[in-house]
Amino acid sequence: MAGFGVANERLRALEELEREIGASLQSAGLVILELSKEKPQERHLDRQCAQFGAAVAKVEAELSAQIRYLTQVATGQPHEGSSYAARKSCQLALNRLDYARRRLAELARACELMLEP
Fold it and tell me: Dmax of the chain from CA atoms?
């Protein structure tokens, strides 16, 4: 059941990422609110902009990590906790088997037609 642990860990990381996106949107909203004032406080703007930049950098890094993980899993490279490559290989083998059966049935029909008087 190690696969569930990896999946749960990935889901927790995505939930944290979602919270971080919310925090970055909140920081951006505070910046816009401060800019809408007649006399915005520069220090407050700088702090909110820095928080927004840090949140965006964290979101970008985590999204990149998630994309790299999904790319690795989807390309069939060996990955602990993933059965995608094995399922893909099995499905391809079943497709080849089905194709071979159809071709053999066609060959049998052709031979029967040739043997008819």
Answer: 102
Backbone angles phi, psi at 116, to 5 degrees: -70, 140
pLDDT by residue, tens only, the chain of 117 residues: 455 777 788 888 888 888 888 888 888 888 888 888 888 888 888 888 888 888 888 888 888 888 888 877 776 665 556 677 778 888 899 999 988 999 888 888 888 777 776
Answer yes or no: are the C-beta atoms of 41 and 6 closer than 8 Å.
no
* Runs of H (alpha helix) within the chain: 2-36, 42-74, 84-115
pTM for the model stands at: 0.53
Q: Spell 33-72 as b/e; 16+ CB within 10 A means b.
A: ebeeeeeeeeeeeeebeebbeebeebbeebeeeeeeeeee
